[in-house]
Design brief:
single chain, 240 residues, Alpha-Beta Plaits, 20% helix
């Protein structure tokens, strides 16, 4: 039986760099496969220069569902050297929520990865070390394939966001966008290509290849909620 790991990325800030160079550090609009693989490799205790081990993680099937888009934030830092000062621009997603899912036909391998994510060797973070995952990060493992799980898993947006959209839609359902490995969808739609296939994390030879991806529109039932729409800014941080 197939197993699928479910991870939730939420919090005040996230950043998923996909094409950062020099003074500009960008972010993709949702978690990249290379970033999540890096997180998994760190949890397993892999070092950046253990290229073969990290490359093998590409074999994990991957999908991400956008629960709450958030907004783009630009920050800047002034860096100084002996001879000059310069500004670095850094981009983040604020107030966003995503579900990332990993699966493989080897259920024992999935169990090993899940155990590492619960007790990681190196701490997991959302794209940058300055934004660690929150208390609800590991959602668990389900006995189902990735596509079935991504289509049926309960909506994980923040409560205030769900209340707001529930009142706007008034239809009892919402459509969420998801992106999965193209090989998981048996249809004629053309794939898009993202440069987030891990080739090397080695700081001396960091490199990523292209990966075919397909998008999906998923309809999710909206749960009954109260009319209170007050927003708790600290909700994404987790329990204290």
């Amino acid at each position: 039986m197939m197993k699928t790991i479910i991870l939730k990325f939420s919090g005040p800030l996230q950043s998923w760099g996909i094409g950062s160079y020099f003074e500009t550090r960008d972010t993709a609009r949702y978690p990249t496969k290379s970033a999540v693989i890096g997180l998994v490799g760190g949890a397993l205790g892999y070092r950046r220069d253990e290229t073969e081990k990290n490359q093998k993680l590409n074999e994990l099937s991957f999908g991400v569902r956008i629960e709450q888009r958030g907004t783009l934030l630009k920050d800047f830092h002034i860096a100084r050297s002996a001879n000059q000062s310069y500004v670095t621009n850094r981009y983040y997603l604020q107030d966003a929520v995503f579900l990332a899912m990993l699966s493989h036909k080897d259920s024992k391998w999935i169990d090993t990865v899940a155990k590492a994510l619960v007790s990681p060797v190196f701490p997991p973070y959302m794209g940058r070390r300055s934004v660690p995952v929150d208390s609800g990060f590991f959602q668990g493992v389900v006995d189902d394939d990735l596509l079935s799980t991504i289509k049926s898993y309960q909506w994980q947006a923040s409560e205030w966001y769900q209340k707001r959209l529930s009142q706007e839609k008034e239809l009892g359902k919402i459509k969420l966008e998801a992106y999965v490995d193209a090989s998981l969808l048996d249809d004629s739609s053309p794939p898009i290509f993202q440069r987030d296939r891990v080739e090397s994390f080695d700081l001396m030879n960091r490199n990523h290849g292209f990966r075919p991806v397909k998008s999906m529109q998923i309809e999710i039932q909206i749960a009954e909620m109260s009319k209170d729409t007050e927003h708790d800014a600290f909700q994404g941080i987790g329990g204290v």
